[in-house]
Design goal:
The mean pLDDT is 96. With 132 residues, this protein is of the alpha+beta class. The strands form 2 sheets. Strands 4, 5, 6, 7 and 8 form a 5-stranded antiparallel β-sheet that branches. A hairpin with a 2-residue loop joins strand 6 (103-108) and strand 7. It has helices at 5-18, 30-41, 115-121, and strands at 23-27, 45-51, 58-63, 77-79, 88-89, 103-108, 111-114, 125-131.
Length: 132
């Protein structure tokens, strides 16, 4: 049993990037699907596919690398809010990752969104992770 499925998701992504894998398979959940969609929209992954099996389903993620230098698009991905210590922010405390070059993914009342969208909608929430 996994106590923190989001940390497991981020660790699988991080390990696949460090091992230079092309595709990584991760057990699915609705929160993981939302995070995957954000990573795709912001250009950190090449593509993704949701597959249903008899249990919870699988997310297949194609990782993105620079064509010539083979540098991964995801340089760093870090969990912020943990089950033992949740990190909530208000609208005026939304973090900026690398002065706007990275993204922070937040779980808010408006759904799972990036830090820029949260500022635009002026909502706060739980900071899930930082990506750059």
């Amino acid at each position: 049993m996994i106590t923190d499925p989001i940390a497991d998701y981020l660790t699988r992504l991080r390990n696949a990037v460090m091992a230079k894998h092309r595709v990584v398979e991760i057990p699915a959940s609705s929160l993981k699907k939302d995070i995957t969609k954000i990573l795709f929209d912001k250009g950190y992954i090449l593509s993704y596919k949701f597959e249903d099996d008899d249990k919870q389903g699988i997310i297949k993620i194609a990782l993105k690398y620079h064509p010539e230098t083979k540098v991964p698009a995801i340089r760093s991905i870090r969990r912020v809010s943990k089950p033992g210590l949740r990190k909530y922010v208000g609208t005026d405390e939304i973090p900026r990752v690398l002065n706007g070059l990275g993204i922070a993914i937040l779980s808010t009342s408006k759904g799972v969104i990036t830090d820029k969208e949260a500022r635009t909608l002026s909502v706060g929430g739980e900071v899930i992770c930082y990506v750059h």
